[in-house]
Design goal:
By secondary structure, the protein is an alpha+beta fold. The chain is flat and about 75 Å long.
Length: 290
């Protein structure tokens, strides 16, 4: 398809683009802080990240004499999945009719907010799909038992003293358990969450998680990776980004179609690095009578 030629710059494009960048990155930063993610990897477009099934450490316990060569200990990582990191490119257009109805900035910002929600939905969906491939298992007769089993297995896998467990459950499972209890839920990144629930640092609730299932892992097992848009050699496209470089945004007017367009490019992945450190707990009522 030939390039569209009748494109001109929106006069306040930089301000609109920067606003969208800031909204997206502020939500990402809030999620990182909440999850306790300390490892944020910047990668190049077209590169890959690796999810591991297990990490096996074999220590050489030889007593080393003064001046002798220290023998090697062995660390083996068994790769489970290689995830390509490529731009997720999106474009949306606001017609002149909506601009006339709501005003230029309002029409753009309303639809930009909707675009951000879809971008974060993909990141959230990919994370939940990643957790669903965890290899740890647990069962319990009810939600409380499953949480206890998951907590025990996660903390056993990550034996450090400061392990913080994070879990993900279906909204209906939470509703069935909590009933009329007075609790305070908060919302971030399209998911409701509870703090300090069932001995977990955080419990996220989302309907895409199968009912009767609890995904649990340690906060130190969660990693964020993204393609750095500040180092993408795309100056000619007038992308606006901030120091994090997690997303590039540009705005244009298409006179041929009487539309104002927003274009984004990003590649952000949240994932559990070691799948053996993700426990999938299942509520199985028959366990009670076993």
């Amino acid at each position: 398809m030939p390039a569209e030629t009748n494109l001109t710059r929106i006069t306040n494009a930089t301000a609109l683009s920067l606003d969208l960048v800031n909204k997206f990155n502020n939500r990402m930063k809030s999620l990182y802080e909440l999850l306790g993610i300390n490892r944020v990897l910047k990668v190049q477009n077209g590169s890959s990240i690796t999810v591991y099934k297990a990490a096996t450490v074999t220590l050489d316990n030889t007593e080393v004499a003064p001046g002798d060569i220290i023998p090697l200990s062995k660390v083996e990582l068994q790769a489970a999945e290689v995830i390509p990191m490529v731009w997720d490119k999106k474009r949306k257009a606001v017609p002149a009719e909506d601009i006339q109805k709501y005003g230029f900035n309002t029409a753009i910002e309303m639809t930009d907010d909707a675009l951000i929600r879809e971008l974060q939905k993909k990141i959230r969906t990919d994370l939940i799909a990643n957790l669903a491939t965890g290899t740890g298992t647990a069962t319990g007769a009810n939600l409380q038992e499953v949480f206890a089993q998951n907590w025990g297995k996660v903390t056993s896998t990550f034996s450090e003293d400061d392990v913080q467990v994070i879990s993900f459950i279906n909204n209906m499972d939470a509703a069935d358990y909590l009933g009329n209890a007075e609790i305070t839920t908060q919302t971030l990144f399209g998911m409701q969450y509870l703090e300090g629930f069932m001995n977990n640092k955080l419990v996220f609730m989302h309907p895409s998680i199968p009912e009767g299932t609890v995904y649990s892992t340690a906060d130190q097992n969660l990693i964020a990776a993204f393609v750095d848009m500040t180092n993408a050699n795309l100056d000619e496209f007038d992308f606006v980004n901030d120091s994090t470089g997690a997303i590039g945004v540009t705005h244009d007017i298409n006179k041929q179609r009487l539309t104002a367009e927003t274009i984004t490019a990003s590649a952000v992945k949240l994932y559990a690095e070691v799948l053996d450190g993700v426990v999938i707990g299942s509520i199985t009522p028959e366990v009670a009578g076993a």
